[in-house]
Structures are given as C-alpha cells and as structure tokens.
Design brief:
The complex is a heterodimer. Chain A is mainly β. Chain A contains no helices and twelve strands. The chains are: A mainly beta, B mainly beta.
C-alpha cells in the first residue's frame, strides 16, 4: 500500500517571500500521479498542481512549482511571492496509474497548515 | 457550473445517534468518492461509486457506515450508531473521468462531532 508523509504540520512565511512544503511517499509502483491540494478555512479543497511520475520536468503553475525527485520519492511544493490568500491547509496526495489495481482513489498526507504573515 | 455540495456543513450528535451526510456531485459526474479526516490526521479514502454501483468500498471502517447512491445522482453516508471516534470531517469528491483528466472536484466537507 502507498503512504504519503508530510513532516511539517505547520509552516509560516512572510508575505512576498518563498516557502517550501515537504512531501515524501512510499510506493512500489513505477507510474503514478502526485498532487498538491489547498484547502482554505471552511472552503472546498482545490487542486494546486499535478505531476505525472513519468515526466522528468517539474510541474509549474504560476507562483507554484514542485521539486519532484522520483528516486528519493520526494515531492515538495514551492510557493513564490507568497500572498495572504495562500494561507490554507495544504495536502499532498498520490494516485496510482490507471493500470494499477488501486483504482482512482487518492492517498493523502496529514497536511501542512500554512500561515502567511503580512 | 455548480460545484460539489455537501450538507450539513456541521453536525453535532450524541453517541449512539444516527447521522446522515449528503453529497451532491457535479451533474454528469459518474464517479463519486467519500473521504474523511479524523483528529487532524491524514484524509482517508472511504469508498468510490461509479454511477449507483460501489466500485471500491475497501476504506469503509465498519458496518456502522452505510453509503448509498440511488439513481446515480446524489449520495448519502449514514453512520448508525455513531461513536466518538467517528468525529471528523467527511469530504465528498466527484469526477467525470478520473482515468483521463485526473481531475477531482471536492466539496467543502461536513464536520461531524460526536459527543
């Protein structure tokens, strides 16, 4: 079974600065997908960024980018030029390739609460 | 397009009572998932519907939990009788084709407190 670990329960960053959230995972599969989700307080969880394991290039979405290290099974999220609206709980998630038997379920980490200080 | 709607947003019940959570997925999304986050831990998978059929219910903790999706539209998750350890946030997500677009739309969750 796959596991996802987020070792930072809480992180804080100054507005306009850069912060990196850590995520490691364990799997025996070679093809899979990794996600970062953001959940603002009392709001729905939304997708921040997605990475396919077969792609060597790190995914980037505007101010959000990942550092995907497949051999190390690490998938960190970097938020540049942090904004007050980035304050939220961030979840790292894993999904098996469709050919695997795990189906389309997501496996999540424990979450990292990000505070952005003005 | 309306998003995934869950209600109630909060529920406080006594141990031994019954609670029913509801999830309305995005119209046309055949895939519906239930997850829950207990005591600040990781979000765990409960089950997956494809239309009205249970595709995967391996995450259901015990037989006190009953999920239904009659007609392949909205879904309910009933907890009967509720125990203290059932407290947490229950999330619902829907997807049109998770094996193609890998997109899941989540609801805001139902916070269940059992006292």
């Amino acid at each position: 079974a796959q596991t996802v670990t987020q070792s930072q329960p809480e992180m804080s960053v100054q507005e306009a600065e850069t912060v990196t959230l850590s995520c490691t995972y364990d799997t025996s599969e070679s093809d899979y997908y990794l996600f970062w989700y953001k959940q603002p307080p009392s709001r729905q969880m939304i997708l921040v960024i997605r990475q396919e394991a077969y792609k060597q290039q790190n995914a980037t979405e505007n101010r959000f980018s990942v550092n995907f290290q497949k051999a190390a099974k690490s998938f960190s999220l970097k938020i540049s030029d942090s904004q007050l609206g980035d304050a939220a709980m961030y979840f790292c998630a894993y999904r098996s390739d469709p050919w695997e038997t795990s189906g389309s379920r997501l496996t999540f980490g424990e979450g990292t609460q990000l505070t952005v200080n003005p | 397009e309306a998003g995934v709607t869950q209600f109630p947003s909060h529920s406080v019940i006594e141990k031994g009572q019954t609670v029913t959570l509801r999830c309305d997925p995005i119209s046309g999304h055949d895939n519906l998932y239930w997850y829950r986050r207990v005591m600040g831990k990781e979000i765990k998978f409960l089950l997956h519907f494809v239309k009205e059929s249970k595709q995967d219910e391996s995450g259901m903790p015990n037989n006190r939990f009953l999920a239904e999706r009659t007609g392949g539209t909205y879904s309910t998750l009933k907890v009967q009788p509720a125990e203290l350890e059932d407290s947490g946030v229950y999330f619902c997500a829907s997807s049109q084709d998770p094996d193609r677009d890998y997109g899941y739309t989540f609801g805001s969750g139902t916070r269940l407190t059992v006292v």
